[in-house]
Specification:
Layout: E1 5-10, H1 16-27, E2 30-32, H2 34-44, H3 48-55, H4 61-70, H5 76-79, H6 82-100, E3 104-107, H7 111-114, E4 120-126, H8 129-138, H9 147-166, E5 178-181, H10 182-185, H11 187-207
Parallel strand pairs: 1-3, 1-4, 2-3, 4-5
Helix pairs in contact: 1-11, 2-3, 2-6
């Protein structure tokens, strides 16, 4: 299947969002990241800040069981924890975008899993912990004494959200077409490599 969509999963502080935006600009296509969350929040009638916490958190089985037992008459989707509802709604929005737009870049949100059947070129951006802490401090404005802890917590949330919703392993590089170390390559070169690899892949597909 021709891969017309680029999906990017990324470690916290690796610059995946910036790289995704750069790649999209080079290709002349849209890049979706936080916009998916904002669209979900609008449909749910909830502030994006509230959904952001639920987006990458999975409830405990005890709380989920308690919710089910307290509301036996509700539909299955209504019974789902907020984090699961967010994933379902985001999946619908992402699929709607894929139906209406030929090509785009999607950062995060289990994109390679959601769009697997539609055809996507999946990328994983990573970097050494010290480089990610440095970026968090210098570019994200995170306090130096809190940066490492924030990085670890963010990665854990992303990993849990991805693993639970996809049944796959977030950091398993075998499931991605392309894996790039942004600390070694830099943001601009990563974006250039993504664009080149994406174009070469599709050109090869067209010849077959």
């Amino acid at each position: 299947m021709k891969k017309t969509i680029i999906t990017i999963e990324r470690q916290y502080g690796s610059g995946g969002s910036i790289i995704g935006k750069l790649a999209a600009e080079k290709l002349g296509i849209k890049c979706y990241n936080r916009q998916i969350l904002e669209m979900t929040a609008e449909r749910c009638g909830i502030a994006p800040e509230y959904l952001e916490n639920a987006e990458e958190n999975v409830p405990t089985s005890f709380l989920y069981s308690l919710l089910l037992s307290a509301n036996p008459a509700r539909t299955m989707e209504e019974n789902l924890p907020l984090s699961d509802k967010v994933f379902l709604m985001e999946s619908r929005i992402i699929n709607e975008i894929a139906e209406n737009e030929k090509s785009f870049v999607l950062v995060g949100r289990c994109g390679n899993y959601i769009l697997e059947e539609k055809g996507c070129f999946s990328v994983y951006i990573y970097a050494a912990p010290d480089a990610r802490v440095k970026r968090a401090v210098e570019e994200y404005g995170v306090s130096e004494n809190k940066a490492e802890n924030i990085m670890k917590k963010a990665d854990k949330r992303r990993e849990t959200f991805y693993n639970v919703n996809t049944g796959k392993t977030w950091q398993d590089k075998d499931q991605y077409e392309l894996c790039l170390n942004s600390a070694v390559l830099g943001d601009e070169l990563c974006a250039e490599i993504i664009v080149k690899a994406y174009q070469e892949y599709n050109a090869r597909f067209a010849e077959e």
